[in-house]
Amino acid sequence: MTDLTELGVAAIRDGVAKGDFTAVEVAEAFNANVAAAQEALNAFIVATPEAAIEAAKATDAKRTAGEALGKMGGVPIGMKDLFATVGVQTTAASHILEGFKPEYESTVSQKLWDAGAGMLGKLNLDQFAMGSSNETSYFGNVISPWKRNDGGNAALAPGGSSGGSSAAVSARLCPAATGTDTGGSIRQPAAFTGITGIKPTYGRCSRWGVVAFASSLDQAGPMARDTRDCAIMLEAMAGFDPKDATSLDMAVPEWEANLSADMKGKKVGIPREYRMDGMDEDVAKSWDQGIEWLKDAGAEIVEISLPHTKYALPAYYIIAPAEASSNLARYDGVRYGLRDLPDGANLQDMYAATRAAGFGAEVKRRILIGTYVLSAGFYDAYYTQAQKVRTLISHDFKNAFTECDVILAPTAPSAAFALGENVDDPLKMYLNDVFAVPASLAGLPAMSVPAGLNREGLPLGLQIIGQAFDEQGVLNAGLAIEQRAGFTAKPEKWW
Amino acid sequence: MSVDTATVAKIASLARIKVSEQELEAMVPELNGILAWVEQLGEVDVTGIEPMTAVIPNTLRLRDDVIDADPLTGGNKRDAVLANAPAAEHGFFGVPKVIE
Fold first, then answer.
1. DSSP codes, A459-490
2. What are phi and psi of A88, to 5 degrees?
3. Per-residue pLDDT of chain A (495 residues; tens, 9 = 90+)
4. How far is B65 from chain A (nearest CA, A)?
5. Calpha distance A88→A171 (Å, rounded)
6. What separation in angstroms does the CA of A331 have from each of A41, A339, A351, A396, A430?
7. Chain B residue with the nearest C-alpha to that of A103
């Protein structure tokens, strides 16, 4: 019998529907992989093998009864621990939410369960999704399943913030996982681990029940092994939700059915500002290769300009911390989560002690920056200026899309780095998202597809950025690259 | 603009995060590094540009003005609301004494 954990979303869905294997067999196979890898990779904060089996049994029973199985029928998935799940600890990888068991289910996770998916567990992440290497989790680092080919044994970063998701999918602990992307948190980890991930247009997926980081940027999306699997899962996750004020009231397109790798008549923009001085040689090469692949698929290549690119990252590091400082004000030691009440402390002391004990260093850093840029006297100089620059970045994209249909760029400036390599320098860490952040600031759909391996044997990703609401164009260009890249590399099992 | 120890202490107090003297000393150069880097936004000409309010044009909706429009977020949820409270007492959130 084939190893069921080598199958992706489409193959599992179709195999279960046809009766080649049962959903329970699939869930058991993935449960075993999750348990076997936990100590070495630390991808999950909590495993929920019973939930996976229970959902699988429901799917198998439906099949016996001749009922429809749903878009994700029989597919077990990993759930980033940023989505509220009823009765299952939801922490955002923080100490302050340790032990928090939501009384409600996030809209996105509920939609996935309704579509027939089951939950293998809650995936580790950077604390409150703040980080690019999964080194800020209260529950320990996630270790990438990938190793360099230099014979060394350096533990590598799986990317962040969706580092548990990326590590788990690439190590075959789950066929797909949810991610969230505020400034690259789906795309950069996908690139680091040789998997595919898409952040849809802002508002496609409901934010209800997703622990908030920066509400004007946060957007959920799927992470899976290929483009088709992402299309299937995104269909299940997306859709209007009256409980989210910024949810898009639009029908969910049939992305999977409309997949097409034919790029004839399409124009692909290459932003000249993304070709930065001192760019990693392998990254530059894979970008050139991507251009050739899309030409081969029939696309016309045009050079475009996004003049405010260099200001995207500093604008992001004002806007995101500002929103975070406001969103994270809710953690007060009163309503849920941790409480630290020193002897004789009053209410204000309790707030300060609780938040000091409950937040990690990076979270505190961003709250302080956010508080500072929003404080009286500095608001206009920092926050208003950053929001004006954000408008300019959005205009840049609008102008570019008068000349092209999609934009092709690298996902990240380098392949995965070693754990510990960037932790002492926050600015160096922030630079990881230099190519990812502009699309986030403009709310545009963007995905990362694996393009090949670098000289160290590590995956590199290519990023496709599309116009608002045009996930189809993004997925199609991704598919065209995927078919030509023929990326089949996977980490050699050492765990 | 740069911050000194006193300013960081003030911000931490506004953000309700207790920080030790030692942490303050470490935070000052870190925050100044980040602030010096974001300073470059000042060189962008933003004349006549409106600050971004919504990346994707959308209108704010109003829900029907009825009680329990959504039973999930409607009333009579006291026990669910208090279920995760660190110190729920007599059907309320318990806090240290506020009024002397």
1. EEEEEEEE-TT-HHHHHHHHHHHHHHH-----
2. -115, 125
3. 579 999 999 999 999 999 999 999 999 999 999 999 999 999 999 999 999 999 999 999 999 999 999 999 999 999 999 999 999 999 999 999 999 999 999 999 999 999 999 999 999 999 999 999 999 999 999 999 999 999 889 999 999 999 999 999 999 999 999 999 999 999 999 999 999 999 999 999 999 999 999 999 999 999 999 999 999 999 999 999 999 999 999 999 999 999 999 999 999 999 999 998 889 999 999 999 999 999 999 999 999 999 999 999 999 999 999 999 999 999 999 999 999 999 999 999 999 999 999 999 999 999 999 999 999 899 999 999 999 999 999 999 999 999 999 999 999 999 999 999 988 888 888 888 999 999 999 999 999 999 999 999 999 999 999 999 999 999 999 999 999 999 999 999 999
4. 14
5. 24
6. 29, 9, 8, 37, 25
7. B80
Task: Collect all residues of chain A within an 8 Å Cβ-Cβ radius of residue B16.
Answer: 329, 332, 348, 351-352, 355
Residue A219 and residue A204 in contact, taking contact as beta carbons nearer than 8 Å: yes
CA distance A424 to A421: 8
Task: Verify whether the Cβ–Cβ distance B86 to A368 is below 8 Å.
Answer: no
Residue-range domain boundaries for chain B: 5-43
Contacts of B25 in chain A (CB under 8 A): none
CATH of B5-43, one of 1.10.20, 2.20.28, 2.60.40, 3.40.1130: 1.10.20
- Domains annotated for chain A, with CATH where assigned, are 4-262 (3.90.1300.10)
Question: Is B58 in Cβ contact with A378 (below 8 Å)?
Answer: no
Q: Which tokens hold the place of A28?
A: 């058991």
Answer yes or no: do B1 and A378 touch at CB < 8 A: yes
| pTM reported for the whole predicted model | 0.97
For chain B, say whether A32 makes contact (Cβ under 8 Å). Answer: no
Minimum distance, in Å, between the CA of residue A351 and any CA atom of chain B: 6
